[in-house]
Amino acid sequence: MLLTKDMNRLAAFKVMLSSEKRRVWVSICSAVLCSFVEIIPWLCLYFSLNAIYEGSSPYMYLVTMAIALIVRYALYTVAIWYAHLAAYHIIQKVRQHLVMALAHMKIDKLRGLKRGDIEKRITDDCQSLEPLIAHHGTDIINGLLMPVLMTSFLFYIDWRLAIIALVPLPLALTAQFLMMRGFAERQEKYTKIVSNMHQAQLEFLRSIGVMKLFAVDANSYLELSRTMRSHDKIVTTYTKQMVGAWVTFVTLAQISLTLVVPVAILLVEVGQLSLVDLVMVICISAGLLKPWLDLTQVFSQIQQSTVSIDRILPLCSSNDGISVMYEEPLQVLSCENMAVSRGNYTVFENVNLNITPGQRVLIEGESGSGKSTLLSTLSGALSSDAGGWKINDDFVHDFDDESRSRYIAAVDQHVKFFTGTLKENLLLTKRDVKDEEIWHLLDAFGLKQLVSDLPSKLSSDIGETSRLFSGGEMQRLAIIRAALAKTPILILDEATAHLDQLNEQKALAALREYSPNQIQLIISHRYQQVKHVDAHFNVRSGSIHEVSLV
């Protein structure tokens, strides 16, 4: 399955269905045959009544009716069963496609997305496809074919009654169309409000501890209240319109029974219609528009599914902007004419730097001066407005994720570990690392004894282990993880903020000894404690100034 954000909803839906082509076609063919078989019991009823009326045996027709009902049941079961199988497989493929698209998405774009919104698109929006494929596909086929077949039967009985039965339908469809105009836009607005409410709920739950601690109405609570009020308002409007459209359509559609029956009785009186014909006309008129009425009930769900497709597509990749694989050895790291802005505020302009392998570079400056922004453009977390970092002669922002990860590792003060063992978390790199090398680094960082005392040592579950480690110890583990990647470039963005002076010196010395040819870019507020640096830069007023080394 290949979805791109440049597709429209129809093209995307076709791609989804084509990924389960066999199951979809079996379901469609079964549903079509089911509708044709469903008309057979009506014909058998008509002919059996005529047989009784004429004094002959109706048993042949009744047996045929019973067989048709059984076949219809079997075909409907197959149609629904294969539709469900197709739906579940399509949803799974779409989710896998989205996960892969997120995995290949540029870091700066990924960080611009809200976590709650991503969760809703992968879970709720993908699941919204299930009714459209599993249920409504069969309903739509049946809803379109049965009225046509029933009307054809009515034409067989008396063409005048068939025309009278169809007269209210254009009025009903016109009324519903007028009342449902703009429904897709309102559905999209509703979906956005629900997404915002979901995000606000997550933010509220994350900050509820702080709110309780200070006994204040935090911004997250106010945002949650606003989104809930917006949700209630649009649901009220949405319900009023849906109920009005539904009642209007049903009222107009049911007029056909009121119009047909008196005319049919009149035709019986003048001898142009038999009593059997009258009974069948009444039965057919009562059920003629029922399938179309059923379709109006699922109309909102169909719209919701199509809106969900529109929300899924922006997460997919685009056909342009292909990333480059890069494997050349690092000769020089440079920053060329780089400019970075936040809105109307210029953070950097015309930044030029040259750094060679083996250099340790210290970057300091006041809070908010742009130190982290400078290195975030190198790690890929931010995009520059012009220029950028280059490895040798190629811009880093053109590299694919795998190429960038071979050159750059980064550690900040926010430590993140994942479900698994301690060893699995330390070896996120694709390098083949032996346990001896891990223990060597643990010893160099002063953590060997602590890990040795764990019941399962390196195989200890990180969830349990993290409770036994302090913040500074977890930060050292994160630095070890980055060191084990042995990338030519290492970014330490306040990575030693939770360490005391002694352990900070020990960690930096261990890094220098372990990777002497590595470029180490270090941001630290305690820059006086960073020893043995080869270059020192101060960031201030949107520019970078080199500080002479004494």
Automatic annotation (TrEMBL):
The chain crosses the membrane at residues 24-49, 61-83, 140-157, 163-183, 242-268. InterPro entries: AAA+_ATPase, ABC1_TM_dom, ABC1_TM_sf, ABC_transporter-like_ATP-bd, ABC_transporter-like_CS, P-loop_NTPase, Sigma_54_int_dom_ATP-bd_1, Type_1_exporter. This is ABC transporter ATP-binding protein. CDD domains: ABC_6TM_exporters, ABCC_MRP_Like. SUPFAM superfamilies: ABC transporter transmembrane region, P-loop containing nucleoside triphosphate hydrolases. It is a multi-pass membrane protein. Residues 333-550 form the ABC transporter domain. Keywords: ATP-binding, Membrane, Nucleotide-binding, Transmembrane, Transmembrane helix. Pfam families: ABC_membrane, ABC_tran.
